[in-house]
Amino acid sequence: MATYHIETYGCSSNRGESREIERALRDGGHRPAAGPEDADVAILNTCTVVEKTERNMLRRAEELAEETADLVVTGCMALAQGEMFREAGIDAEILHWDEVPSYALNGECPTVTPDADPVLDGVVGILPIARGCMSNCSYCITKFATGRVDSPTVEENVEKARALVHAGAKEIRVTGQDTGVYGWDTGDRKLPELLDRICDIDGEFRVRLGMANPGGIHGIHEELVEVFAENEKLYDFIHAPVQSGSDDVLEDMRRQHRVDKFREVVETFDDRLDHWTLSTDFIVGFPTETEADHERSMDLLESVRPEKINVTRFSKRPGTDAADMKGLGGTVKKERSKAMSELKMTVVGDAYESMVGETFDVLVVEEGTGDSVKCRDSAYRQIIVQSATDRGVDVGDFLDVEVTGHNTVYAFGEPTDEGRASEGEDRAEPTPSSA
Questions:
Q1: Which region ranges are annotated with the description Disordered (predicted)?
Q2: Alpha carbon 192 to chain centroid, angstroms
């Protein structure tokens, strides 16, 4: 298991974001380190109020970069003035806070809790549909904790989803180590049926499919995309972590797909859906990755152009087969990570730039910083609406928003029909556990 160290500066919003990061890392099997020098990854959640604060943040980032193997900088200063860290020569990944867990988890599958109970967190319902996976990736330690996939029936999961909706969920997040292999243990690929039936539940809500490895969904991708096309409740979004653009590296990683299968999944969704989001992950600096392999990954990112990209610098997990491989030098990994991260920002920025001037139907999912709210459009792209109280916009509302600008990894929008509240205010008492 990996270790982390996190430091938080600034307002209560930053502290809340750090709690979310820690919760995701703990769910992924990570544990806190005694200090930054003992951590596999250090996370600095920054504040930027006055010039003195900025100097303090730069100084602390420089110290942490010397004390730990891998530094992530997030928070207000990272997003508003990320170039200052680069100009200061600080070796760090600059990430939006909700990208931090994926980066730190090193490409491993999420760890679903043993009881796999649904959880209602605000208006977001978390629905684990199965536990375990069918993969045997050489770098992943999660498999030792979760074992092979164990899939409850479609009926059981639909009832859990219905309970979440009745409890007030406006967004249901379908989760698992690998949602694409749901039902493999029973000999029946049932993910399309499950999603279809969840969308048939009465109520106004949205459904987001969680991580599905390309090897898992390739055999059902044509059936799956039809479910997406036919159900407006289902966000047109898939998270399919490719991890490398090189078949040789994928073989060494023991991934269950090759690049052509990943491309086939993407092309099928491109052909069938007009407006959708591809999220994927890349591991940079795997021990057997050559410079040519890295260039293949860069070429794949450039050609496929995902709207959400997690770039992870490889680190060894004790007990995994990859831990016994002779690793690449830290400088090589850092240079490749920097190059891919820069390309990532260009690709993601272009995606959000293309949204400016367009109007989207969104769901207000949660509160943001200050008096802002975070919304998601039909393709799960994030749009921030500011001055929410004055506009009469609340979490759980559905409304139309015109995108007026962007900050590379999310957009800003102005409501065109302020505060159109959701239907059905009366709800039954919640049966799922509350976060």
A1: 412-435
A2: 21
Q: Are 72 and 103 in contact (CB under 8 A)?
A: yes
Residue 176: alpha-carbon gap to chain centroid: 13
Helix (H) or strand (E) holding 411: strand 411-415
The Cα 251–Cα 138 span in angstroms is 10
Q: Delineate the domains of the chain, giving CATH numbers in brackets.
A: 3-104 (3.40.50.12160), 119-353 (3.80.30.20), 359-415 (2.40.50.140)
Pick the more confident residue, 351 or 54. 351
Rounded distance between C-alpha atoms, residue 59 and residue 295, angstroms: 34
Angle made by CA atoms 239, 242, 246, in degrees to the nearest 5: 165
SS3 content of the chain, % helix, strand, coil (to 5): 40, 20, 40
For helices 259-272 and 291-304, the axis angle rounded to 10 degrees is: 10
The C-alpha atoms of residue 368 and residue 17 are separated, in whole angstroms, by: 10
| Full-model pTM | 0.78
CA 380 to each of CA 4, 11, 209, 238, 242: distance values in angstroms, whole numbers, following the listed order? 29, 27, 10, 9, 20
Cα 65 from Cα 67, distance rounded (Å): 6
Distances from the Cα of 210 to the Cα of 127, 176, 207, 281, angstroms: 10, 7, 10, 13
DSSP for residue 243: B
Residues 101-114: tens digit of each pLDDT = 878 776 666 654 43
- Give the pLDDT confidence of 404-417 residue by residue, as tens digits: 999 888 999 999 96
Task: Label the pairing between strands 206-209 and 373-376.
Answer: unpaired
